[in-house]
Each structure stands twice: as C-alpha cells, then as structure tokens.
Design brief:
Oligomer: single chain
Number of strands: 4
Radius of gyration: 13 Å
Structural class: alpha+beta
Helix content: 25-40%
Order of helices and strands: EHHEEHHE
CATH class: Alpha Beta
Distance between the termini: 16 Å
Length: 104
C-alpha cells in the first residue's frame, strides 16, 4: 500500500530536522524495512513535510516500530522538531492523506 503523510517542522528547527535525516540510524532504517516498508521519501516546502511510503500494512508497520527502543528514541527526537506528528496521532494507521486523483 502507498501512504502519503503531511507533517510540519517548527520553523526554527528546519536545519536540525534536515541534519537529523542525514544521520538516520541504520538500526532504524533496518527496522523500518523489517516492519514492511519498501520505500519512504520526505519532501519539504517551507515548514510543510510530505511523506510517501510504500509498505505492506501501515498499521502493522507503526505497531511493530512502536515497541522498538531505536524508534522510541527517534520519535522523541522528532517530537522536539515537529509541529505536527503523524505516527502516534489519534488517527493511528488512518493518518494518511486521502487519495484525490491518480494517473490511470
């Protein structure tokens, strides 16, 4: 399944957010892949972040990552940088953006 997410970085933390993503721990990327993700790309426009990820089951991916210390630490780090966080919102696995149109 393909999931699109929209998050926001604090305006004064953009550089720190980008720096953090230049050094994502290998243990975390391995865990994301093991949880079923095959790709994840993040784009930034100002403070708006747009994510597109492909995975077998987004809800399962979040559930598997939630229990891993490397992800818990990463989420704590991101919480300091983000205005809008998608992973642990009340919407849970339904946090993705709705599809409006796709090229047939």
């Amino acid at each position: 399944m393909r999931v699109a997410l929209h998050t926001k970085v604090h305006a004064d933390r953009v550089a720190a957010y980008e720096a953090a993503h230049r050094e994502v721990p290998t243990e975390l990327t391995d865990a994301i892949r093991a949880a079923g993700a095959t790709s994840w790309t993040i784009w930034r426009s100002g403070t708006d972040l747009f994510h597109v990820l492909d995975c077998a089951d987004y809800g399962r991916l979040l559930a598997e990552l939630a229990k891993l210390p490397v992800n818990v630490a990463w989420q704590a780090r991101m919480a300091e940088l983000l205005d809008v966080v998608h992973d642990y919102s009340e919407a849970g696995s339904e946090a993705g953006l709705p599809v409006v149109w796709e090229l047939p």
